[in-house]
Records
---
Amino acid sequence: MSGMVHITCKQAHRLLSERLDRPLGPGERWRLWLHLRFCDMCSRVGRQMDFLRASVRRLDK
């Protein structure tokens, strides 16, 4: 795998936000997944974003 595997929390937050708008590429998904396995705070942010997206989708129905 080329490129950097480790990403910062700032980069993880950007990817969490971007995955709401577009599918992430395989490398982006892998780096985000790896970061979320070790960073409790970013995992929490991701769960909050998922909850908000699901809530908005329910409102649209």
Note: The CA atoms of residues 12 and 40 lie 12 Å apart.
---
Amino acid sequence: MPKIKSNSGARKRFKKTAGGKIRRRHAYKSHLLAHKARKRKRNLRKAGLIDPSDRKNVERLIPYK
């Protein structure tokens, strides 16, 4: 059976952790940063985890990651 292609957009956005969870970046950190609070921007730097309800869909996009 042939390999499944990974979705190249998802491959760049998501990474699997050692425990099997999927990490993601936060939104709202790319522009219009002048009016956002320093604390908010600092917290947006940290990676988040995807919601468990989205896990099945994201794992289908990145089967070998």
Note: The chain has one domain: 8-61.
---
Amino acid sequence: MVEWKKLEDVFEIRNGYTPSKNNPEYWENGTIPWFRMEDIRLNGGILSDSIQHITPESIKKSGLFPANTIIVATTATIGEHALVIVDSLANQQFTAMTRRKSLMQSVLPRFAYYYCFKLDEWCKANIRKGGFASVDMFGFKNFPFPILSIAEQQRIVGILDTFTASIDNLKEQIAQRRKQYEYYRDQLLDLEGKPGVEMKTLGDICEISRGVRVVKRDLGESGIIPVFQNSLLPLGYYARSNNNGNTFVIIGGAAGDIGYSEKPFWAADDCLCISGKEVLVDKFIYNFLIRDQHYLKSQVRKAGVPRLSRGVLDKLCIPVPSLQEQSRIVSILDTFEASIQNLEAQLKEREKQYEYYRNKLLTFE
């Protein structure tokens, strides 16, 4: 049996705020968590601490948001929320929802957290039109919230917690595998000064060319060739390519991001395309530049349109071992990459399952 109540009848609803940045005593040596969207992006939907902290002097008379408050983004980046399990505050992007005292024993915090994914969907569909994106707060306060038996809430939370734990476990495995990959990549590519290894400039041993401007009228759903401009995600698709694969590309407009493709693609003029000559295995160069990506990012021109100069790549020195040794290194690193991709595929599938069951369990006829 489900009883429906208005959101404002289940939760006390308050706005977040930002203490004045001009007053140092509000911020220096702060110990009170103060949440922003960045906290959710970095640490997920159950939060126990924040990146930034404030001092007791910054707290208004209304006090802190008590532990087990849900913060919902109702301006700017709308459709995100978190359960905060410590006393805290949040910035003005968030609306805070704290269970009313009369319903403390009737609504489990984690059940409310999971049901707020439904609220997120509603928020994204009910944005006020105008200069600054914000949620229709009248409708927000009247959003229907289900009151179920505690036993049923516990059952739903138990199932969804199991999915969440599985997803978190996969994310941790991926993070650990990436650390292993980076460790072995750095060890394997530490070749300078070793017997049989020559140092060469990239310009001497690679074909480097800038891409060709995108003709937007040629972009269409009928094309099958991905077009890359200022991101490693395709801008669209062409019916033709200007690179035949086994080539990697550096996106200047995306601050030095590096991609590799074994299939044909079209590179726009924000891209630098690189392929090896007879002395190089393409994937070997790719792994070397991925290792030094932080350097390439530091060389991106900041003024105007961000773009990496071809001259930076021409002068970049890399170690060149024998083709046999390059192939051996690439094979080892490919094994790590394949393992990571397999875990990422598992994660994607588990997240789909979680969303399916979350929607099914939280839909009450």
Note: Residues 150-188 form the longest helix (39 residues).
---
Amino acid sequence: MKTVMVVDDSRIMRNIVKNTFSELKIPCQFIEAGNGKEALQQLENQPVNLVLLDWNMPELSGIEFLKQVRAMDQYKDLPIIMVTSESAKYNVIEALKTGATDYIIKPINEKIFMEKLSKITI
């Protein structure tokens, strides 16, 4: 079974993301983190197949997490999708240039979510 890491400082948002997988009947197990620092620590202990990452979080933002993960050889190809309310074009461009695989703007639309997931192999 595939493992998905959901990184968001909102427990409610993490639950929404997990429920979206369930509603779309995508079987997987989840690892949760409330910020980028916690996510980095968990990534050291358990391999994952996909990261869904918020931008604005305490301690270590999503974009900083992304920079650190992409600097590690073993995670250069790890699919990381930003799931964030940051909708400005420059934010999307920055995330993609930094190494995000894709970008989803909150609130999550199931059709768009499924389209984005179908583009990657987890």
Note: The radius of gyration is 13 Å.
